[in-house]
Amino acid sequence: MGVSDRGNSAASQLKPGDFDWDHIFGKLGVRWLHSGGIFAALSGTTAALTIEAVKAAKKHGVTVSYDLNYRPSLWKSIGGQQRAQEVNKEIAKYVDVMIGNEEDFTACLGFQVEGADENLLHIDVTAFKKMIEAAVKAYPNFKVTATTLRAAKTATINDWSAICWMDGKFCESRKYPDLEILDRVGGGDSFASGLIYGLMTTGDPQKAVDYGAAHGALAMTTPGDTSMVSKSEVEKLMKGGGARVQR
Question: Fewest CB atoms less than 10 Å from the CB: which of 36, 131, 153, 162?
Answer without folding.
Answer: 153
